[in-house]
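Hi,

Apologies if this is the wrong queue. I'm a grad student, and the batch job for SPFH domain-containing protein from Nocardioides nanhaiensis produced an output file that my downstream script rejects. I'm not sure whether the problem is my script or the file. Here is the sequence I used:
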Amino acid sequence: MSVVLVLLALLLVFVITLLAKTVRIVPQARAGIVERFGKYKQTLPAGLNIVVPFIDKVRYLIDLREQVVSFPPQPVITEDNLVVEIDTVIYFQVTDPIAATYEIANYIQAVEQLTMTTLRNIVGGMDLEQTLTSRDEINHGLRGVLDEATGKWGIRVNRVEIKGIDPPPSIKDAMEKQMRADRDKRALILTAEGQRQSAILTAEGNKQSNILNAQGERESQILRAQADREAAILRAQGEGQAIQTVFQAIHDGRPDQSLLAYQYLQMMPKIAEGDANKVWIVPSEIGKALEGLGSTMNSLQGIPQEVDGPRTRVDMGTSEPASLSDDDGVSKANEAVEQAIAEATQAAHPGRSPEAAQAAESGAGMPAPAQPAPPADDAPPATS
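Support response: The file is valid. Your script probably expects a header line. Output copied below for reference.
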């Protein structure tokens, strides 16, 4: 009984082993390479597969997905004899599992070595600056060479990327200094442009300010000139009216020699008011001096001893000032003043022409040659 159980157990183990050797499950995106007696037999797709047990053997399980392999940095010499460290990344995919299995022993190592040799060939024809700025050109060259070389291996290189290019430390320091100098240069250029724009705007502002100041000064001078003109017109009108009033008062008062002598005596204290007149001496013969003054005043030309005849009233016109902008009114006022002066001169010197009367009137202020004359009876007594 025990022998039968042992046989049944052995039979069960054999069946299980046979099933395990017969049924093979291949995962998705994988391919199984089957060999029969050491020779390629078939390629198993993904899923459940049946093989001959103890005869067929699944030698390799190939991954059909796109793979990424990063290679360590490798030293590469540029055209200008500088050593740079370059590390790359390869994206590839197995398209033919049979060729990837039997055409090359280790396709990843082969791709790595091929990448290094191709990279040295490409970078060796470039200087450092081109190497740092031509990554797309290097990637394109690497991809073309690798895709052509790995085609017979059943591998397709999809992309090659340069992950890093590290120049020597001294070159890095020089590049940093150059970059710093370039940035300082651009900063100085921007500063100079800003100062230039500021100077231009300041000059334009000063120009506009000077123009506005000049316009304001011009308008101010025009207004000041107009104000001076109107003030001069008003002063002329006032002086004209004052002359008319004084002349009318003199004409109405009918002055004679006694009035003039009295006014001269009133002016004597004012003569003594000057700063240079420190001492005023009144002569003892003041009476004779006044008599001589009276005789001199009696002989003034143009001033009659006695005034007879009717009074003549001079029309002074309206008392309202003429308009500031009425130049004809100012001219008429001046003509009226001149006419009134002429009429007064003609009345004081009847029988003379107006020109001679005016000439005599202008010479009346000058004393005539001294002539002996009796002292005036109506002269005021001399006072000390």
